[in-house]
Every structure is written in C-alpha cells, then in structure tokens.
Amino acid sequence: MLQQQYRFDLLFSYWIVLWFFLFVFGFTRFNPLFALILAFFENMINLVVFYCYDFSLYDIFLFFVITIFNKGLPILYIYLKHEFKIKETDITFTFILFFCYIGWLLFNGFNFDHVTNIYENLKVKKYDGPLSNLVKEYILTPFFETRSVFTSSF
C-alpha cells in the first residue's frame, strides 16, 4: 500500500527549515548552513534518482522548485545576510537535531515499512511530499497549464 502524503514533522528537511527560521529570527545561535548544504546535496541526488526512475518532467521540476524554496533560498539568505561560516558547534547541533528527529520518528511509530513505502512510490513514479500539492496548485499548474510538455502528468 502506497503512502499518499508525508507529514511535515516526519521529514527532516522541514526540521531544518524550522531551524533556519529560528536562526533568522534570533531564537538560536546555531547556524543551520551545514544542515542546509547537506540536505541540498541529498535533494540533488534525489533528482538524479527521479530521472533514473523515469519520472515525468513535471514531477522532477516540482521537486526542484520545492528544493530551491526549502534549501536554496535559505542558503542564499545566510550567504547574503549572515556569517557564511560553519562552526564545529553548528555541526554538533546538526547531529543532535538529527538524533532528536530519529527519536520523534520512533515516538510516532516509525518503522521500515515507511521506508518501503517511499521506494514503492518511486517504483510507480510518484512524488508526493508535504508541499507538493500546494506548489502544484498555486505555482506550477497556473504557470504550466498551457504548456503541453508538462500537462501530461496532471
């Protein structure tokens, strides 16, 4: 059985995005740059996987847009507005946050069936993350609804 959509709190990327906002608004001194860069590269690997699994251009572009919003723009913001330097404490906090995330997954009944569902979704060429429906409805569909190269996936 395929998982239709994943909750925000079950994906580490959204923990990093929350950390970014806490950093920007001064609620933490730990810079999320290290985590954002790692997550950005992991998402680029996912794009290659999507291409290898022969996902539609629409789904690949959708994932790319979400990656730019969730990782690319925060990295750019830190580069332009804050210290573009990764400290040892930032790396340590990244790992602490990741272990807290793993604890949250276990608390919420995470098991390896969840990982299996992610791979099953890849087999049927389906990307359906938490932001995908919002981006589809409000950004991609209005922009691409007249372009035939993307409309075959709607």
Quick structural summary:
The protein is mainly α and 154 residues long. Helices cover 69% and strands 0% of the residues.
Report on this model:
With 154 residues, this protein is mostly helical. The chain has one domain. 69% of the residues lie in helices and 0% in strands. The chain contains 7 helices and no strands. The longest helix has 25 residues, at 57-81. The mean pLDDT is 80.
Question: Which terms summarize this structure?
Answer:
154 residues; mainly alpha
How would the global form be characterised? globular
Compute the average pLDDT.
80
Q: Write down the domain tally.
A: 1
Low-confidence stretches: none
Number of helical runs? Answer: 7
- Proportion of residues in extended strands: under 5%
Helix-and-strand structural type: mainly alpha
SSE sequence, one letter per element: HHHHHHH
- Terminal Cα span: 22 Å
What is the gyration radius calculated from CA atoms? 17 Å
Helix percent band: 55-70%
The biggest beta sheet reads:
none
Total strands:
0
